[in-house]
Design goal:
The complex is a heterodimer. Chain A is mostly helical. Chain A has three domains: 45 residues, no CATH class; 68 residues, no CATH class; 47 residues. In chain A, a hairpin with a 2-residue loop joins β1 and β2. The longest helix of chain A has 28 residues. Chain A is elongated, with a radius of gyration of 28 Å. Chain B is α+β, with helices and mostly antiparallel strands. In chain B, the strands form two sheets. In chain B, strands 2-3-4-5-1-8-10-9 form an eight-stranded antiparallel β-sheet. Chain B has a two-stranded antiparallel ribbon with strand order 6-7. In chain B, β4 and β5 form a beta hairpin. The two termini of chain B are 33 Å apart. In chain B, 50% of the residues are buried. The chains are: A mainly alpha, B alpha+beta. Chain A: One of its GO terms (biological process) is stress response to cadmium ion. Chain A: GO terms for molecular function: cadmium ion binding; cobalt ion binding; copper ion binding; zinc ion binding.
């Protein structure tokens, strides 16, 4: 089928326009679709945004329902660092600054879950310089898990060794914190 | 300004090397999104804050080298003409977002164009690294080292639970988008790709055409990338992508063999018709160009055409984009004039090949 606008290229977009019950079938090529304004230039960017704000709206509407039942007025959550409100965030679909993550923290899990197939917690690279503490805390968690496993398996000698490692690491972490308070 | 070298050559130096599986995988890319800890994200930051980031990046990284990525060139968007920005977009060195929406944006580009660091795009930093062919692991390794190198000077926004904090919730966590650019003509001709895309999507990966609008794949070039960035490690993300790409390579090879065995004459006819069109047309649109280039490249890969180099697809795909054509002509051109210039450039380029 050829494009109804230019009659040159094949029609690749087909849709039906309904205005006051009058149906018109449209068959156009991409170029004409753009030129004649049938589709927007920023279709892709728009649809992604749409998709996102759709997610947020879903989130806020379910919140509203809860709110309605308890009749508590919704407080405006506002990031103290950059001034972005939760409402603005759901509207643009973007955080204003790193602190927004803390400010809106309670409401983010459902959003992250939907965007990241169920995940809410990071499991990847940790900054080298800034992350030494985090590295050690993660190591501590791993060691504690290992300890549980060793006790379960009744490998007490190894368990004692792991316990000492945990103690040393904990001392080290507490020591660092103490220093930080100075 | 040595920006000129980025402008004049359609094909980036790194593209001239052939990577593994380069008959199908054109390039592998790793992108990391990173932000400064104490400065609001570009969407909300004021002019002074964005200037601060520009100055910081310029002072610390301009003309610096890291590994074999030499002499990072610092280029501000505001200093570029529209056509120059368009050329950088067509070479995938910057994003359309940086070119169009980031007045206070800039980019650092390594001499071999393998690394580009976009500044003040949607995030403060978008680190991009390309490798020829199918080399996701190597690209990730270098991107990590690059990330550590940047971190020596920058405090990144990072949260123990959420990972690297980004402006858009779709990038939080690893901030990683790994993608592979693939030429899949046989899967497209046999219409198998349409049935494979939904399955790939179900694995949390995105398939889209590049150069084309929306989901249409111009020149049968597809980009496969991860969508999930939170809750999975970078290596897991890469491994998922790798296994799907491997499957696609396998299927594409099978489909090529099938076409060669069962529809050899039709295939040969298709390839040489396209070759003829490229060699002889006087007016050619970018869509037809892409289709013909894809056929010719398939012809080269399958041994039907022997006197043209494989990089022709990568090179002419970029060279025949509107921005590059206008950069070449040194003036802005109407679409009709572009089609004429495009045809003549292609003829010239193919003649160059044949004279060797």
């Amino acid at each position: 089928m050829e494009c109804q606008e230019c009659h040159e290229r094949p029609a690749t977009l087909h849709f039906t326009k309904v205005i006051n019950g009058d149906k018109t079938e449209i068959h156009v090529c991409e170029q004409c679709a753009k030129e004649k304004g049938y589709v927007s230039y920023e279709e892709e960017a728009y649809s992604l945004h749409d998709l996102l704000s759709g997610l947020f709206n879903f989130e806020s509407s379910s919140l509203n329902e809860q709110k309605q039942s308890s009749f508590t007025p919704e407080k405006t959550l506002k990031c103290s660092k950059c001034g972005m409100t939760y409402e603005e965030f759901t509207h643009v679909g973007k955080f204003g600054c790193a602190s927004c993550y803390h400010t809106f923290s309670d409401r983010l899990n459902p959003i992250f879950r939907r965007v990241h197939s169920g995940n809410t917690t990071h499991d990847g690279k940790i900054p080298k310089r800034k992350g030494t503490d985090i590295h050690q805390r993660k190591q501590l968690l791993d060691l504690k898990k290992e300890l549980q496993q060793l006790i379960k398996n009744e490998e007490f000698e190894k368990a004692a060794h792991t316990r000492d490692e945990i103690k040393a690491l904990e001392r080290h972490l507490n020591h660092d914190q103490g220093e930080g308070e100075w | 300004m040595s920006l000129e070298k980025f402008m004049n050559e359609a094909i980036s130096p790194w593209m001239k090397e052939e990577g593994p599986d380069s008959d199908i995988v054109m390039s592998s890319r790793i992108r990391l999104a990173r932000n400064f800890e104490d400065i609001p994200f570009p969407i909300i930051a004021n002019k002074d804050e964005l200037e601060e980031i520009l100055a910081m990046m310029k002072n610390n990284f301009q003309q610096k080298s890291f590994k074999n990525y030499h002499d990072l060139e610092f280029v501000k968007m505001i200093d570029l003409k529209t056509i120059e920005k368009r050329v950088l977009v067509e070479k995938h060195l910057i994003s359309p977002h940086l070119a169009e929406k980031s007045d206070l944006g800039a980019v650092l580009i390594s001499e071999n164009e393998q690394v580009s660091i976009m500044v003040n795009e949607e995030d403060h930093l978008r680190v991009q690294l390309y490798f020829p062919g199918f080399q996701l692991e190597q690209a990730l390794e270098h991107a990590f080292e690059m990330d550590d190198w940047l971190e020596e000077k920058i405090d990144f926004a990072f949260d123990e639970n959420r990972g690297y904090l980004t402006s858009c919730p779709t990038n939080v966590g690893t901030g990683l988008r790994a993608s592979v650019m693939m030429h899949l003509p046989a899967l497209a001709i046999t219409q198998k790709i349409n049935r494979m895309i939904p399955a790939i999507n179900q694995l949390g990966l995105v398939v889209r055409g590049i150069y084309g609008e929306g989901s249409e794949a111009l020149g049968n070039i597809f980009q496969i990338s991860n969508q999930v960035t939170l809750g999975r490690s970078e290596n897991d993300i890469i491994n998922d992508l790798k296994s799907v790409v491997q499957k696609l390579i396998e299927q594409e090879r099978k489909a090529r063999q099938m076409l060669g065995d069962q529809r050899a004459v039709q295939l040969e006819d298709r390839i040489f018709r396209s070759y003829g069109v490229l060699e002889h047309s006087r007016i050619i649109e970018s869509k037809e160009t892409a289709k013909c280039l894809s056929d010719v490249r398939l012809g080269i890969d399958m041994g039907y055409i022997t006197n043209v180099s494989r990089t022709i697809l990568n090179e002419l795909m970029i060279l025949t984009q509107p921005g590059f054509l206008q950069q070449y002509a040194k003036e802005s051109l109407s679409p009709q004039d572009r089609d004429v210039l495009r045809a003549s450039l292609i003829r010239e380029r193919l003649n160059l090949e044949n004279s060797y």
